[in-house]
Amino acid sequence: MKPVEIRELSSDDLNVKLKEARAELFNLRFQMATSQLDNTARVKQVKKDIARLQTEMRAREIAAAGALK
């Protein structure tokens, strides 16, 4: 997921995407442990997507706090 796509999402959509990404990461780790994972690079991609989603959520939180002052 690209940063531009993430910025266009609403806060609710960000939460949903974050939950989905964490579930996917869990499943990928489970597949890796049982030697069923074919694309090991996908784990790194999902981790980066999670980080991007969390970064955008935090940026919005800081912007909202700054707007209140």
From TrEMBL:
GO MF, one example: structural constituent of ribosome
Pfam families assigned to the protein according to its UniProt record, in alphabetical order: Ribosomal_L29
Transmembrane segments: none
Entry-linked InterPro entries: Ribosomal_protein_uL29 (IPR050063), Ribosomal_uL29 (IPR001854), Ribosomal_uL29_CS (IPR018254), Ribosomal_uL29_sf (IPR036049)
GO biological process per UniProt: translation
A GO cellular component annotation in the UniProt record: cytosolic large ribosomal subunit
Keywords assigned: Ribonucleoprotein, Ribosomal protein
Cited PANTHER family: 60S RIBOSOMAL PROTEIN L35/50S RIBOSOMAL PROTEIN L29, LARGE RIBOSOMAL SUBUNIT PROTEIN UL29C
Name of the featured protein: Large ribosomal subunit protein uL29
